[in-house]
Amino acid sequence: MKTIRLIFLSLFALGIQPAFAADDHSLLPGETMNYIGYGAIMLALVVLIIAMLTVLKAFKLVARLLLGPEAAVGAKADKAALKEAKKAARADRLNKLLSLKPMSEEKSLLIEHDYDGIQELDNPTPAWFMYLFYVTIAFAVGYLLIYHVFDAAPLQYDEYKNEMAAAAKEKAAYLAKAGNMVDENTVKLTTDAAALSSGQDVFKSRCVACHGDHGQGNVGPNLTDDYWLHGNKINEIFKTIKYGVASKGMPTWETQLSPKQIADVANYVKSIHGSNPANPKEPQGDKILDDGTAKPVAPAAKTAVLVK
To answer: Rounded to the nearest 10 degrees, what angle do helices 69-98 and 127-143 cross at?
Structure first.
């Protein structure tokens, strides 16, 4: 009765909740009422299940009392017999899988010869092993047809070449992206032919008017001698190209060239040092010695020029 009452109360709470929620805002919110209702229903279901299990147990007890001890013993014997039958069936399936015979039939498998009273059984190869062997044959035939007859899939060497080609594309994309992350603090001196060729192309299209087609100097200074206005280190050349020197007429290329292009031009300028082109312009700036020290140019040779 208590369970029935709890169920009815829960249903009643769920039924009247929308009406109260709509008319009386002083009661609990509708969502809270829903949770209470759901909780009550779940509790009622748990109690109902417990009650059903209790009734079932009571029915079993009554049936055992009505049928008597003989029936209980018979049921127990039937249960034991069923368990033994299942066990025998599992053993039979295992013997078939392993191609084994029961102990009672081992005499039919004995081989005639013996050694010191030891005899050998002529057991066949297990069935699972034969199935596995057949699978390997099917796999070998399929592999031969796919890889060597129809060329439906690449062999290991072809797969390696495909992977290397894909890796080369990824590397090129990465280097293109990483190249534009360089600045005057991270630029590196390089002799890479591709970088120097790129720098030469940019130099010929942007720098020839001021520095000559071979860097010998024109309006701007000679880039091939030992004299420098703003340093001859790769990061110093990069900085000069990037920011320019407005007071000397050297434009800033930061907005017109990518960081990689600036780095390539800087490396190209380093590569043409000492090339001794025809008709070089007079020295300007300080002579940078091998040890990195600067020696000013003679006063007679100083002129007002663009930045190098």
So the answer is: 40
